[in-house]
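user: Kindly work through both lines:
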Amino acid sequence: MKNILKFLFFFILITSCEDNLNINDNPNTPVDVDKKFVLTAAQGSLATAMGGQLANLGGFLAQYHTQPPSASQYTNIDTYNMNIDFSDRLWNELWAGCLNDLKFVLAKSDEEGDTGSFLIASVVRAYTFQVLTDLYGDIPYSEALLGSENITPSVDFGGDIYAGLIAEIDAALAKYNGNPVNSTVGAQDAIYNADMSDWIKFANTLKLKLYIRMAYTTQANASAVTALLTEDNFITSDAKFALYESAQNKANPFYDVQIDRLGDVNNIASNSLLQFLDTNIDPRQTAIYRTNTSNIFRGIDQGDRGSYASEVASDFSRPNIIATTPVYFMTVAESNFLQAEALIRYSNGTGAKAKYDAGVANSFITYGFTAAQAQILTGAGGTYEYVLSADVETALRQVMIQKWISLANVNNIEGFFESNRTQYPETVTLGNEDYSIGNMLVSVSSVLTGDQTPNTIFYPDTETSKNPSITQKASITEKVWWDQK
């Protein structure tokens, strides 16, 4: 592990120096560097984004946390007042860091005939593009990462990007299955230790996620989903990046910035999730939040910091993230919830209950509890017992509420994407909430009109100023292509 960390942070140092690059810059990675170290750097860069700025952003927008009354670092997020320079660093991290490094790994893997490493890099690349297009909407894809060949790439429609990503995954799987060369990267693959069976499962699970994200669109593909369900080869262990230590610059990125460097003063529990867990006596509350200085769980309504002007962050519960908390890309719980939704939509709900129960059980396991503890809540008469329904949306709501919980401090931005897509939990205005069944609020301090909430974020000004092919969106209330409910 120390060897991995040595090279990981060496390459993160390199990519952090690329902050002034745009998505067309060449990787500038030395050609004699072994691709396995560049893969670790790419995975580390993705983890830095997912577990850092996206964990913070997603935590506010999925209403896992909110801004405390005594601090104002992220009131721009909590009030829906994010501007065009909000995501400059995030954009550069994913493009100039992660995707450019993956470009190098793909080229070297192809050159060496290493079909295993090619599959790993292809799946990580597809995952990264999925996050980018889900967050920003239409982005450069078909013309991106071409360097001097095209310095002003046009954006692609999100639906076309999804189709392209599925094709990329299928091509990488076919390349590997046609000539199954085990990856040479070994332990430098910080996610699955180059276990190709795990990466094939990850590829299938990511494809299922992409197809399910299309569910409310004309691109919904029941036959493709059914084929994946029939194959039944999804992840059986959480896909996570866990190379963190209790030291500055080596800790979990949320912990390193929000808790260690900024003093743990900017993120407190939102009642949207806290009160749901509390009223349903869900033990995951203790894994997601810490108690306050009075040893109780306490939060505030989303954005309602003005009602608690004399109080500080330690008077409330805060995210329970430590230096060594992994960054999760996809969990077994998420996989099971995806399968449950697929069965509800495309198989009349047959088998959905078992997948729902497995989703809740695996969420408990990810948080450090047991499947038996989950079964107390999902079993007959339990608070979370799955109730069969012929109505798709009624059945689906149960799955999505549990999925929302399972993503807290695990993959916060995914929680935001899914609440956008399905509208579960429902977002209501203050005074109309029922936290016991799962509700989110229009932020009490919102600067938007009426009951509007963010659906996307602005393109970074560092990119729009360099690339005339990207037109800045008019508002963060614009919907991405799959948000059609």
About this structure: The radius of gyration is 21 Å. The first helix runs from residue 2 to 16. The chain is about 50% helix and 5% strand. The chain has one domain: 2-246+325-464.
